[in-house]
Amino acid sequence: MSEARSLSPTLRWILFAALAVGGLLYVKWLPYWDRAFVAASGHSIGQSILMGKAAHAPAASWAAAEAYALAYGKAIWKAMVLGLLLGSGVQALLPADWVARLLGRTRFGSVVAGGLLALPGMMCTCCAAPVVVGLRRQQASAGGAVAFWLGNSVLNPATLVFMGFVLGWRWTALRLVLGVIMVFGLGYLANRLTSAREAAQAETAAAELMAAPQAGPFRRWLLILGRMTLQLVPEYIVLVLLLGAGRAWLFPTVGPDIGNHIQWIVAFAVVGALFVIPTAGEVPIIQAMLSLGVGAGPAGALLMTLPPISLPSMAMLSRSFPPRILAVVAGAVVLFGLAGGGLAVALGF
Questions:
Q1: Is residue 116 part of a domain?
Q2: Which of 39, 49, 151, 340 could cysteine-pair with 115, CB 3.0–4.6 Å?
Q3: Cα(14)–Cα(36) distance, rounded to whole angstroms?
Q4: Is the pTM of this model over 0.90?
């Protein structure tokens, strides 16, 4: 009996569910449960990964690149491994038609499903990217995949709790209101940007995927995992090193001189959309900046742009979305950063 026949669809579901639940329990849910009590008692979840307690980032150098990459890698490596396992498992273990049926249509329902599926994941933008790659290869719609991608970080329930205890609940409310609009609005927009031709091609590909004979799941899983790792991880590491080295250029100084002027809000919105941080990393970054005298406007911009996207995550997904969709998502995230900064100033944060 072949491996494909010996492993029933029910058993495949059980294996994938065990991986997802067990992995998230170990990597996310239990650590974040403990961290919430730390945030509640100490009103802090650690130092800013960007520059620690300093008022400026270290000068651009290999040492700065290596130090940031090591600190960042220590924070996210378990989640990245889990993301690669889930992204490949989606393709190898789940029934070929499941993703297409749940997330494959260009209606708003696929966007809602993608956003809701993101909530228990609680991954940073880069660790969610391999799962998004797997969903897109299983014919998830652009809107459903975008909602899943952005929802992991922007609507992360743990981060919202940390934010409330550390920064104050009005910051949580600002993030939640704008985050819901961002996740589901940009998902809807991504589906609207999908042409009729692309939608028809996706439906054809989904039908071919469902009709194609399936190879042994474990062998296929290993092959997909290896291919995804070789495609995604090297470019990811290079970009993290470059951003780590370039912190001094992206954040040359942090202090009272960074006020609520529109040029600073725009600058921080753009930089936040490019830079890469671990899950909830924006919370200590914003806390440190506010303590050093940075205005609420630039902080509000980072609140909305640091988590959802980054240069590495967009590079990882460059083969999964048409360039125009990634460009629109990136531009819209920057606009949400401007909205976050403007509202923080207007509301007197």
A1: yes
A2: 151
A3: 30
A4: yes
